[in-house]
Amino acid sequence: MTRSTGFSFIAPLLVLMVVAFNAPIVYMLGLAFWEKGRGFTLEHYEGLVEAPVYLRVLGNTMRIALIATLANIVIGYPLAHWMRGLGSRGRMIAIALVVLPFWVSILVRTYAWIVVLGNGGIVNRALQWSGLTDSPVSFLYNELGVTIGMANVLLPFLVLPLFAAMLRIDDRLLQAAASLGAPPRTIFWKVYFPLTLPALAAGSLLVFILCLGFYVTPAILGGGRVPMISNLLDTLINQIPRWEQASAISTILLIVTLAIFAAYRRLDRKASA
Amino acid sequence: MNRESIGGSIWARRGLAAMGIFGLVFLTVPLVIVIPMSFSSARALTFPPPSLSLRWYETFFGDPRWMEAMWTSVLVAAISSVAALLLGGLAAYGLRRGTFKGRDWAEGNFMAPLIVPTIIVAIALYLALAKVGLLGSLLGLVVAHTLLNVPLVMMVLGVAIREFDQRIEQVAWSLGASWGYTMRKIVLPNLAPSVFAAWIFAFIGSFDEVIVTSFIAGKFETVPKKMFNELILEVNPTITAVATLLIAFTVLALAAVAIVLRRAGKLKDTVV
Predict the structure, then answer these.
(1) Matching PROSITE patterns, A to Z (chain B) (predicted)?
(2) Tally of domains in chain A
(3) Is the pLDDT score of B4 beyond 70?
(4) What band does B180 get if pLDDT is binned at 50, 70 and 90?
C-alpha cells in the first residue's frame, strides 16, 4: 500500500473502466471509420449526409431538445426562485418533492403521462368537463407528448443546481439595492437575475445535452412517430443491423455532447465560484 | 428591511407562488395519479377508476415471467451496487487523499458514464460484448451496471471524504495504527451514513436501469426491460401496478437515506 501517492486505491476501478468503458467506446469509434478489407474510410459519414432521413431525425431531435429545454427554464426558474423565498420547513418539503421524482424510474414517470394525458385521463376529462373541447385532445404519440414528458423528466436537473445557486446569493446585496431606492423590478433584473444567470445557463446546457441522447421517453410517448437520434440508433442496431452507420452517428452525437459539456463545465465553475 | 421592498408587491409574490406551485404539481401529479389508477378494476385507463380492485397486483405477482424479471433485477442490483460501492469508494478515497499525477483525468474518466449519452454506452457495450461473446451474459450485465453507478457513489462519498478531517486519520497513523485498522475503526464508522446513502443510490440506479440493459441483456429480463418492451407494444394496466410498486420502493429507500443522514446531521449536504 503506497500511502504516499494513493494510486493503488483507484487502480481496480481504472482497470474496470479501461476494459469495460473506454475500450468499447474506442472500438465503436473505430468501426465508424473502418471498412472490412479496405481499412480507413469516411464512407459511413458520406452515407449519412446523402440520406435525408438522417438529417430529418437530427433536425427533429434538435427542435424537441430546444423546446423541452425552454419549457424547463420557464417552469424551473420561477419554481427555484419561489423555493428560495420559502421558510425552512416549506423549503424542505419543496426539495423533497423535487428530489423524489428525480429518483423514481424514468419509465414510471414516462408511463405516468400516458395515464394522465390519455383519452380517458385526468387532463382530457377536465378539458371536456369544463367545456373547452368536445372530443379528447390527443397529447400522446406526437411531438407534444414527447416534449411534455421530456421536460418533466429533466426538470430536477435544472431546478436543483439553480436553487443551490440562488441560495448562495447574499440577501444583503438585495437589501443594499433596496436601501438605495431601487424598485423590486429593478432589483430583480439588475442584481438578482444576473447573479443566477451562470447557473441558469449551465443547467440549461445540461438539460439540452440530456435531451439530445434521450431514448426512453420518445420511444414510449412518441409511439414510433417521433423519431429522435437515439431511436434511430436503436433501429440501426437492433432492427436493420447497420452497425457502421450506427457507430458513425454515435461518434457525431458523442462529439457534440462533449463539446456542449465543455461549455457547461466552464459555466458551472463560474456559477459555483 | 421588510420583504415587500425586495420581493415586490403582494401580487408579484402571489404570481410567483402560483408559478412555483404549478412547477411542483407538474413534477409530482403524474406520479400521484398512477397510484389510484393501479387499484382500478377497469382495463381502460379511465380516471377516476370506476371501482377498486387488486386484480393488476394479482396479475403481476401471479405471473412467473414478472417474478423472474424481478429476481434478475434484484440479483443484478445487489451485486453491481456492492461492486460500485467498493470500487467507487476506494477510488473516491484515493482521489481525495492521494497525491499522484493525473487525478483530474482519472476522475473525469470515472464520471464519464454520467455525461456520455446512455444510448452511446449501450451501443458501445453491445458492439464490444458481441465481439467477445459476452452479449446476453449475467457478467456483462453486472459489469455494465457497476460502471454506470460508480459516478453516483463517487459523488456522494467524494463529498463525505473531503469533509472528514484528514488530521484524524493522521493521528491514528502517528499512534501506530495500520492502514487497515484506521480504515475500519476511524474512517468507515465516520462515513457510514454516506456509505449507506451511496449504496442505496447505486441499488436504485441499477434496479431502474433500462437502456443499456435492453441492448445487452439478451434473454435476461429485468423489471424495467420487460416494462419498456410491454409499453412499446401496448398499454397494459399491469404496468400501473408495477409503477406503483416502484414508486413505493423509491419512497421507502429515500426515506431510509433521509433518516440515516438526518441522524448524522448530514441531510442538507447530500440533498442539494
Answers:
(1) ABC_TM1
(2) 1
(3) no
(4) confident
Query: Which residue of chain A comes nearest to B228, CA vs CA?
Result: A107
> Which uninterrupted H or E stretch holds A34?
strand A34-35
**Domain-located, residue A215:** yes
Beta bridge pairs of residue A34: A40
The 10s digit of each residue's pLDDT in B50-63 is 888 898 999 999 99
Taking residue B34's Cβ as centre, other Cβ atoms within 10 Å add up to 26
For residue A266, the domain's CATH number is: 1.10.3720.10
Q: Which of residues 11-70 of B touch A (CB under 8 A)?
A: 12-13, 16-17, 19-24, 26-31, 33-34, 37, 44-47
Task: List the end-to-end C-alpha distance of chain A, in Å, as a whole number.
Answer: 36
Q: What would the grid cell of residue A220 be?
A: 414510449
Q: What is the DSSP string of B11-68?
A: HHHHHHHHHHHHHHHHHHHHHHHHHHHHTBS-SS--SS-SSB--HHHHHHHH-HHHHH
In this structure, which topology does domain B57-271 adopt according to CATH? MetI-like fold (1.10.3720)
Percentage helix, strand, coil for chain A under 3-state DSSP, each rounded to 5 = 80, 0, 20
Option in A220, A229, A230 nearest B231 (CB): A220
Quote the pLDDT of residue B2.
46
| pTM check: above 0.95 | no
Size of interface A-B (CB pairs under 8 A): 279
Peptide bond into B117 cis (omega under 30): no
Burial class from Cβ neighbours inside 10 Å (0-12, 13-18, 19+) for residue B103 reads middle
- The single-letter DSSP state of residue B172 is H
Domain residue ranges of chain B, discontinuous segments joined by +: 4-38, 57-271
